[in-house]
Specification:
The protein has 252 residues and is α+β, with helices and mostly antiparallel strands. The protein has one domain (3-248). It has six helices and 13 strands. The strands form two sheets. Strands 1, 3, 4, 5, 6, 7, 9, 10, 11, 12 and 13 form an eleven-stranded mixed β-sheet that branches. It has a two-stranded antiparallel ribbon with strand order 2-8. A hairpin with a 2-residue loop joins β12 (209-220) and β13 (223-230). The longest helix is centred in the first third of the chain and has 13 residues, at 21-33. The chain is globular, with a radius of gyration of 17 Å. Mean pLDDT is 76; it is low at 1-51 and 61-66.
């Protein structure tokens, strides 16, 4: 079973809690790397969407304290997959906002859409926000390419390389994931890259493997968007062009 399948399953099943800053990244690392559950190719596990939300959250650091959001949980099911390109009328029955989305993202064709239930909590564990969001998946030969959308709750400080476009700031981020066996010992190079926030190490795989992740995040109106590339290796300029394509698109 290849690592792509492991990622899809582990993220779908286990990436449930997202915490800010280093704690958030540790949560993602643990969710991805320490579950040896397998799946067949084709997004057949239940909660892969939670993993993608987590990766995109790297570019949106949640504020802490004073009634602010500290953790977020996300739940979705393959039973809710929409396997045709939906209309806004259809989405209005599922979510409370109207996102922009496209049937073809760059050269990649629409595959499916998946809604999720989300809950945000403060430092005391009090639920301060609940909402449904939806993500759009695109067909690739390798890896995962998604357009994540959610209501903009104004609780997050955006992080990443800023790119200005039509009065909006897009934030580009990239990071490598190194999947390693349980007895793997970090090298000096590993530690250096981790200190630079250029590498995350996840334990639990049978052999050492590297995966590349890139994302671009922005807010348009009352909606937050994130395009996530998990080992598809879309060039940076093309990923930026995809974001601009969504921004320029007409409502469905």
């Amino acid at each position: 079973m290849n690592l792509d399948d492991k990622i899809k399953n582990a993220l779908y099943e286990k990436a449930m809690n997202i915490s800010p800053s280093d704690a958030m990244l540790d949560s993602i690392k643990n969710s991805v790397g320490r579950e040896n559950i397998y799946m067949k190719k084709g997004f057949t596990a239940k909660k892969i969407i939670a993993l993608c939300a987590a990766i995109c959250a790297i570019g949106a650091v949640t504020a802490i304290g004073g009634g602010k959001v500290v953790t977020m949980s996300s739940h979705s099911s393959r039973l809710d997959d929409i396997k045709h390109f939906p209309t806004q009328a259809e989405l209005s029955k599922i979510i409370d906002y109207s996102p922009k989305y496209v049937e073809k993202l760059g050269k990649y064709e629409f595959d499916l859409a998946n809604p999720a239930e989300n809950e945000e909590k403060d430092a005391e564990g009090n639920v301060i926000n609940k909402y449904r969001d939806i993500s759009f998946w695109y067909k690739t030969d390798n890896g995962i390419l998604t357009l994540e959308t959610k209501p903009d709750t104004h609780t997050e400080e955006k992080d990443g390389e800023p790119i200005e476009y039509k009065g909006k700031t897009l934030y580009y981020s990239s990071i490598k994931y190194k999947f390693v066996p349980p007895d793997y010992e970090l090298t000096a190079e590993d530690r250096e890259l981790m200190d630079k926030k250029e590498l995350e190490v996840s334990y639990g795989s049978q052999e050492v493997e590297l995966k590349d992740n890139a994302s671009i995040l922005w807010v348009d109106g009352d909606v937050q968007y994130c395009i996530l590339d998990m080992d598809v290796h879309v060039p940076k300029d093309e990923l930026i062009a995809m974001a601009k394509q969504v921004i320029d698109s007409d409502p469905q």
